[in-house]
Known about the structure:
Blueprint: H1 2-16, H2 24-42, E1 51-54, E2 57-60, H3 63-72, E3 76-83, E4 86-93, H4 106-119, H5 124-131, H6 135-139
Antiparallel strand pairs: 1-2, 3-4
Helix pairs in contact: 2-4, 2-5
Amino acid sequence: KVEKFKQVLLYVLSKIGGKPNIGQTVLYKLLYFIDFDYYEKFEEQLVGARYIKNIHGPTPIALSKIIDELEKEGKLEAIKSKFYRYEQTKYLVNPKEAIDLSQLKGTEVAHIDWELDRLSHLTASQISALSHKDTPWLVAKDKELLDYEHVFYRPEETSVREYEEL
């Protein structure tokens, strides 16, 4: 779902890309939680991107290619900056380009907004630490794909679904 992934990415960046804490690491983790939390809640994939286990947390494997394509299309720009003493790569959306959400349902946009409200204030260290407590990342081997099905075995700290008591 590459086109849908592009729409989600541009939407997310248009909403929070200018925040000082939003660099590549935070963006990767936000996209991870958007995808995996949606799967836990609705048992279907929003984008269905493939993520691998990296030392710093879940990493979407196709994102750099998608970012390159969007840069060539003039829809976003990568800039280097600093967040405190850390080097940071930020992605800013071209304000002259309209954000296309034609592939997103209203519930998907609402979910993305909920995730951004919930997590977009976190630093790279904070959101990475949270992702390291999540079952899909914990059970995968290094550089291995994360399995969406593992969201149904999450600890309370990362679970977002309301499960009924038996």
